[in-house]
């Protein structure tokens, strides 16, 4: 039996021991313990070192607001590096067999830490230390200051292996979401559920119950608290309430969207590997009841951070929920009645209460009477001026205060100090809604006032105190939420006996005899911010609480100032001589508590990270060993290397084969839009630059799409299938954008047009055959269409069957060779590809990928939108003026094309570039006219496309050059890192300018 | 990791007593677009009244239709029925401006059924399943992907998914099957 465990007490299972290790030492705890409660049961308070001063620290709370007891845990059976989690709150980490916990921020050991030398220099490390110190000399920043700050920054060690666990996410819709499973939340859930609504109740703890878990002696409606709780939880379950323990509401977003993180397996010794570790719930609630309760505030006095000093309410929780006495001899220091009950509870189980030190002079008679009966010394109107002890508090100095004067001190030996500075409503989620707060002068705290969300606040979260009040308010707020949803229910009230209500006063730092600069009275325990730091910030000119916060880092640690914000505000307001509400409160932001990246990523990691679209022919390419590249959401075969080939040799072979025999290309990713209706041609006339009304129903035409600004947005071949039906192709990456743009115009500008747009990208698999032998390969498989050049010339389209599959067959080319594009229903794509591949062997066929496609089209000067254009290129700039229907009254972008700056001759224009020394240019390289001008040189353009051309036996490039059309034959220069290349400006068509190869 | 059949062959992909996910055989599928005044004549040709409330469905024999937008319907039919529908609707050309586009190969259909089917859908579906009545359908989003979700019964659902989106959607559904089976 551990020395500080109280037999039979608490909700832990005294019959089930759980073994774990802390810093390598084996310990035994009980089922139901947290790491903190299990260590406290062994008298271990020292659990970590503080962030800045490396001061020894122990748990100061028993909940998720814990700033001190942050440990590294290794989870899972293997406890591998990827399952390391730094900064786990020992007060929340549920004990499980084999858990490995390690303290942080200490070297070589927790007991003896070299970094604690910082503590001795605390006067040299004041608030704003970094701002003041790391200013000069400027040259020190990169090499000295930044590395130093980075090394010193951050608490805990990030794991450097991937997390092997899985994470999940769900959506949940509920009528009423109740956040917080204490008395107010339970009552609210009950009321809403009895109104017949869908209700969800979440609580971050391992058990529903909230403060009731720490108050077993309370009697509700004649039933002991824990029996009442069990009955109530069962009743809620029977009413269909979704009960979610171990679930933290991390953020409250727009329109009642609440993020929840459920911890699924961390508490299990051997979790099922199919279970996710955590699950993110995106909840859309019609009404939310926030019943988050209140957090106890520490008192601010010199040495209030020593291990053994903790919040009185937390000590009560350790005792009543976990059956652990936090010490042998306690001194209670308080400005609130609630700490007295902690003293009485501990006294009842044998902890000696050396004194109750209350800052107030006037005290309640019943409390004094009870203390007297228990033989506890009461020191009223006293302050604390210091504590002693190295790794654990050993004594406390208390002094009387009379008329503001601090009297002589008296040391009281103790091994724990239980403090209470009163309670602060938990405002975080309310604050996420951008809700307004109001200052409660009596309670010296902010209370929720109004919010635009459909949200009720119940219980201690709006400053109510006591279980009876919380139950009544919870029920009323649950009923109010139900009423807002049109349901009717009567709020209940409960008779509560032994309810320990109370009141107190809020304090700035406690008065002391000492010189303030030598005191270490902590306000923010996690960021090591003292009262002195806050006052210094004000002295140095910080006026707004936002500035004070950033200068001192008060409230900026992972606990987001749950314990420190109000105390910090009271001290800053005092230093400024202003009322607290005029100084204001800093904003709370999501998440409420630190949240794992895994939970935020959910399923979207590894293969499921993002959508990867594949064509029906993709499996064939994969089997052939194709190398892929992403194009938009698609993955496309880039080239098909044979054994021993690198990209250049593979592409050279593919180019040569296609130009000399025949190449096969999977063009299925091209966007396809079927435009149908009596006004289809009229619609295309307005969208594209080209004329469409006279295009015959068996022909194709290249279409150019501009934005309203006159710049090229997309292009593609468009086939007219019938008078009222067009098959439009778009670029692979532009498909969705083009369809959306067309729908936008159709719905907002021309809703009267009788035409409809349908995406058919995935209806069709598209196989492109290019090369002089393309017809010879294809012809034997085609039925219903005469493929002779006379009957089916370049830019013809027809319907037929290919190898028995229904097909839309086009004679088009993006290579400059004789070319066909065969569109077949997607289900047949792979089969047709393999049939053609087999038959193609006799013709020396090759499969080619996007890289070869790029080279072949560049040899012909065909642009790729987005590569040779960048959103500032007009059709004229790209040499595509011929694609504009001159007689058309209008099309998208037409008016912009006649703006004066669109017509100047010095616009950047697309030209060809041939290097003088036959070296290949870098795509993106900048172009200058005079290479000997001083740096920075005037850049006149850049290289957009550059390849080695197998057909020409030399590299070719396309470039956008200022006034390029007027510079034909000129030399320009491309400065590279090691040399400057000279290149001559040419036209963009490098191969077969007459287009004879197309006409075969 | 999940092995999603690359070839997307119809069949059962996961089955437990309370949850089953299968890929359905291809069916005929058309997008039908027309102005409100065309609904009656088009309905006569198709053999049912075209529903005009978005999400509402009608069926006649093996044909069914869902209204996806104020001028948009999705018609599903047997493969052999496709030509009949095309020819029938074509007779409206002169009188009813419309667009009929064959989408039989654009999408695949996944069936999700069993007592935990609705729960499975909440992994990727932001909508409230209870807001979709049995016998209706919705064009919506699942795990970031556009889908049409049909509710055929209290615990029986169909998802129409674009062909190249299907592996992504199936991957999440099968991950979910394992997750649900574990607890």
From TrEMBL, chain A:
Residues 908-992 form the Aminomethyltransferase C-terminal domain. InterPro entries: 2Fe-2S-bd_N (IPR042204), BFD-like_2Fe2S-bd_dom_sf (IPR041854), FAD/NAD-bd_sf (IPR036188), FAD/NAD-binding_dom (IPR023753), GcvT/YgfZ/DmdA (IPR028896), GcvT/YgfZ_C (IPR029043), GcvT_C (IPR013977), GCVT_N (IPR006222). Residues 519-600 form the SoxA A3 domain. SUPFAM superfamilies: Aminomethyltransferase beta-barrel domain, FAD/NAD(P)-binding domain, Folate-binding domain. It comes from the Bacteria. Signal peptide: none annotated. Transmembrane segments: none annotated. The keyword Protein transport does not apply. Pfam families: Fer2_4 (PF13510), GCV_T (PF01571), GCV_T_C (PF08669), Pyr_redox_2 (PF07992), SO_alpha_A3 (PF17806). Residues 619-888 form the GCVT N-terminal domain. Keywords: Oxidoreductase. Residues 175-444 form the FAD/NAD(P)-binding domain. Belongs to the GcvT family. This is Sarcosine oxidase subunit alpha. It comes from Roseibium aestuarii.
TrEMBL record, chain B:
Gene3D superfamilies: Heterotetrameric sarcosine oxidase, Probable tRNA modification gtpase trme, domain 1. Pfam families: SoxG (PF04268). InterPro entries: SoxG, TrmE/GcvT-like. This is Sarcosine oxidase subunit gamma. It comes from Roseibium aestuarii.
């Amino acid at each position: 039996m551990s020395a500080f465990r109280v037999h039979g007490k608490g909700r832990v299972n005294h019959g089930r021991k759980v073994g774990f290790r802390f810093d390598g030492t084996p310990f035994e705890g009980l089922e139901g313990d947290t790491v903190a409660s299990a260590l406290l049961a062994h008298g271990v308070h020292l659990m970590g070192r503080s962030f800045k001063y490396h001061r020894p620290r122990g748990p100061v709370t028993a909940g998720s607001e814990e700033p001190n007891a942050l440990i590294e845990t290794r989870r899972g059976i293997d406890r591998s590096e990827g399952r390391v989690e730094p900064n786990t709150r020992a007060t929340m980490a549920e004990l499980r067999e084999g858990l490995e916990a390690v303290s942080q921020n200490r070297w070589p050991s927790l007991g003896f830490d070299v970094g604690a030398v910082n503590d001795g220099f605390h006067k040299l490390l004041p608030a704003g230390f970094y701002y003041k110190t790391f200013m000069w000399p400027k040259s020190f920043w990169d090499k000295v200051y930044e590395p130093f700050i980075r090394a010193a920054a951050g608490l805990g060690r990030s794991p450097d292996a991937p997390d092997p666990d899985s994470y999940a996410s769900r959506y949940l819709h509920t009528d009423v979401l109740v956040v917080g499973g204490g008395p107010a939340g339970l009552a609210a859930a009950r009321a809403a559920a009895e109104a017949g609504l869908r209700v969800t109740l979440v609580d971050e703890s391992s058990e529903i119950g909230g403060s009731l878990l720490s108050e077993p002696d309370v009697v509700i409606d004649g039933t002991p608290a824990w029996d009442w709780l069990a009955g109530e939880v069962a009743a809620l379950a029977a009413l269909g309430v979704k009960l979610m323990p171990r679930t933290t509401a991390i953020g409250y977003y727009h329109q009642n969207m609440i993020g929840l993180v459920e911890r699924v397996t961390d508490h299990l010794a051997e979790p099922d590997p199919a279970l996710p570790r955590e699950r993110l719930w995106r909840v859309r609630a019609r009404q939310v009841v926030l019943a988050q309760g209140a957090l106890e505030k520490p008192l601010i006095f010199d040495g209030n951070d020593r291990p053994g000093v903790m919040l009185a309410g937390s000590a009560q929780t350790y005792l009543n929920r976990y059956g652990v006495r936090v010490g042998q001899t306690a001194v209670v220091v308080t400005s609130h009645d609630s700490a007295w009950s902690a003293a009485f509870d501990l006294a009842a189980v044998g902890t000696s209460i050396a004194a109750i030190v209350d800052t107030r002079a006037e005290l309640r008679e019943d409390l004094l009477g009870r203390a007297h009966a228990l033989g506890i010394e009461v020191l009223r109107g006293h302050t604390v001026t210091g504590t002693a002890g190295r790794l654990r508090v050993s004594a406390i100095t208390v002094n009387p205060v009379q008329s503001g004067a601090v009297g002589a001190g008296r040391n009281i030996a103790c091994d724990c100090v239980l403090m209470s500075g009163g309670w602060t409503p938990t405002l975080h989620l309310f604050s996420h809604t951008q809700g307004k707060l109001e200052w409660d002068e009596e309670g010296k705290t902010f209370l929720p006032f109004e919010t635009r969300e459909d949200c009720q606040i119940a219980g201690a979260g709006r400053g109510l105190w006591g279980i009876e009040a919380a139950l009544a308010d919870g029920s009323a707020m649950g009923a109010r939420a139900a009423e807002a949803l049109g349901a009717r229910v009567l709020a209940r009230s409960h008779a509560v006996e032994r309810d320990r209500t109370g009141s107190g006063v809020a304090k700035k730092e406690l008065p002391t005899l000492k010189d303030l600069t030598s005191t270490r009275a902590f306000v923010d325990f996690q960021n090591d911010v003292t009262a002195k730091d806050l006052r210094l910030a004000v002295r140095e000119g910080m006026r707004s609480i936002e500035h004070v916060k950033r200068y001192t880092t008060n409230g900026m640690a992972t606990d987001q100032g749950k314990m420190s914000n109000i105390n910090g505000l009271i001290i800053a307001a005092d230093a400024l001589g202003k009322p607290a509400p005029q100084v204001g409160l800093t904003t709370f932001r999501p998440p409420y508590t630190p949240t794992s990246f895994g939970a935020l990523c959910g399923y979207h990691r590894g293969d499921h990270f993002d959508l990867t679209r594949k064509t029906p022919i993709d499996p064939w390419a994969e089997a052939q060993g194709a190398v892929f590249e992403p194009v938009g959401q698609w993955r496309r075969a880039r080239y098909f290397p044979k054994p021993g080939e690198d990209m250049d040799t593979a592409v050279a072979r593919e180019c040569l084969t296609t130009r000399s025999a025949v190449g096969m290309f999977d063009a299925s990713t091209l966007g396809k839009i079927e435009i149908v209706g009596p006004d289809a041609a009229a619609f295309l006339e307005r969208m594209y630059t080209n004329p469409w009304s006279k295009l015959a129903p068996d022909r194709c035409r290249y279409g150019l799409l501009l934005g309203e600004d006159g710049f090229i947005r997309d292009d593609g071949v468009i086939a007219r299938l019938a008078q009222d039906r067009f098959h439009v192709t778009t670029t692979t990456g532009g498909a969705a954008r083009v369809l959306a743009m067309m729908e936008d115009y159709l719905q907002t500008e021309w809703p009267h047009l009788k035409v409809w747009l349908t995406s058919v990208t995935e209806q069709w698999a598209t196989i492109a055959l290019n090369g002089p032998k393309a017809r010879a390969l294809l012809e034997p498989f085609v039925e219903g269409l005469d493929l002779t050049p006379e009957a089916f010339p370049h830019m013809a389209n027809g319907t037929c069957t290919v190898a028995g599959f229904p097909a839309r067959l086009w004679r088009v080319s993006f290579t400059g060779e004789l070319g066909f594009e065969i569109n077949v229903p997607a289900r047949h794509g792979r089969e047709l590809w393999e049939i053609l591949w087999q038959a193609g062997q006799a013709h020396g066929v090759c499969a080619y990928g996007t890289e070869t496609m790029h080279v072949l089209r560049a040899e012909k000067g065909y642009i790729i939108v987005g590569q040779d254009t960048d959103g500032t290129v007009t059709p004229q700039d790209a040499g595509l003026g011929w694609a504009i229907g001159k007689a058309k009254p209008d099309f998208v972008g037409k008016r912009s094309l006649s703006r004066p700056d669109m017509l100047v001759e010095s616009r950047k224009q697309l030209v060809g570039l041939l290097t003088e020394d036959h070296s290949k240019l870098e795509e993106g390289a900048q172009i200058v006219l005079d290479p000997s001008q001083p740096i920075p040189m005037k850049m006149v353009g850049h290289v957009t496309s550059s390849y080695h051309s197998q057909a020409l036996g030399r590299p070719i490039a396309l470039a956008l050059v200022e006034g390029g059309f007027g510079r034909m034959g000129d030399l320009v220069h491309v400065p590279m890192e090691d040399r400057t290349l000279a290149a001559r400006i040419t036209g963009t068509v490098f191969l077969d300018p007459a287009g004879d190869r197309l006409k075969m | 990791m999940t092995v999603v059949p690359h070839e997307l062959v119809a069949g059962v992909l996961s089955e437990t007593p309370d949850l089953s996910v299968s890929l359905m055989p291809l069916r005929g599928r058309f997008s039908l677009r027309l102005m409100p005044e065309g609904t009656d004549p088009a309905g006569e040709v198709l053999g049912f009244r075209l529903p005009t409330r978005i999400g509402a469905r009608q069926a006649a024999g093996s044909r069914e239709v869902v209204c996806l937008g104020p001028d948009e319907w999705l018609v599903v039919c047997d493969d052999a029925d496709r030509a009949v529908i095309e020819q029938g609707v074509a007779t409206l050309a002169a009188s009813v401006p419309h667009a009929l586009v064959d989408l039989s190969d654009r999408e695949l259909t996944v069936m999700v059924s069993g007592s935990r089917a609705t729960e499975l859908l909440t992994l990727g579906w932001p909508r409230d399943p209870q807001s979709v009545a049995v016998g209706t359908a919705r064009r919506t989003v699942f795990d970031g992907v556009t889908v049409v979700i049909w509710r055929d019964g209290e615990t029986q659902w169909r998802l129409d998914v674009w062909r190249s989106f299907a592996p992504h959607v199936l991957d999440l559904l099968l991950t979910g099957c394992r997750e649900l089976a574990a607890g």
